[in-house]
Design brief:
- With 173 residues, this protein is an all-alpha fold.
- The longest helix is centred in the middle third of the chain and has 52 residues.
- It has one domain.
Length: 173
């Protein structure tokens, strides 16, 4: 009984199918979770300090409000309890998705690195050959490679308005 070794084309075809199915499933999961609206950058700056409050702290505060109605009046503890439970339910999903994203990223790097090194080798060999008559046929591809191959990292400088923006203070309660 002989087994046929999968070809790179069959492996890629399989990966394309699996990746497309995974994307569709992730989209469906995202819709079914009914995630809350995303914050603007300014809103994130405002709420960032509040993220240090743990679910346990929210539950303790809710318990305190329930036990001392004379001190805290008619504060509704539902928001505190709901937010605490929401974080406890969603955090494991977030961690798993972050792990998956990191694993996919590492897999892309592992697949890309040898091919990228070979691309640089081809470019390094072809570039001087293009100056010779026998390399004239390579000129269009070498011109394309010249525009596509980046061997240096461009450092992003922050925009002046982003760099000078002061985060807003958290609301006092």
């Amino acid at each position: 009984m002989s087994t046929t070794k999968p070809t790179p084309d069959s492996i890629l075809a399989h990966l394309k199918t699996v990746a497309a199915e995974a994307q569709a499933q992730l989209t469906a999961i995202e819709k079914s979770l009914a995630l809350r609206a995303a914050f603007t950058a300014k809103e994130k700056q405002r709420v960032l300090p509040l993220l240090r409050i743990t679910p346990e702290a929210m539950n303790v505060a809710a318990d305190l409000v329930r036990r001392q109605p004379a001190v805290f009046g008619s504060l509704d503890t539902t928001a505190m309890q709901t937010a605490a439970e929401y974080e406890l339910v969603m955090a494991p999903l977030r961690f798993q998705l972050e792990h998956l994203a990191a694993a996919v990223h590492e897999s892309i790097i592992a697949a890309k690195a040898p091919a990228a090194a070979q691309t640089l080798d081809v470019y390094a060999v072809a570039k001087p050959l293009a100056r010779l008559k026998q390399g004239a046929s390579m000129l269009p591809q070498i011109a394309m490679l010249k525009s596509l191959v980046r061997t240096t990292i461009k450092h992003r400088t922050p925009k002046s308005d982003e760099a000078s923006a002061e985060p807003e203070a958290a609301p006092k309660t």
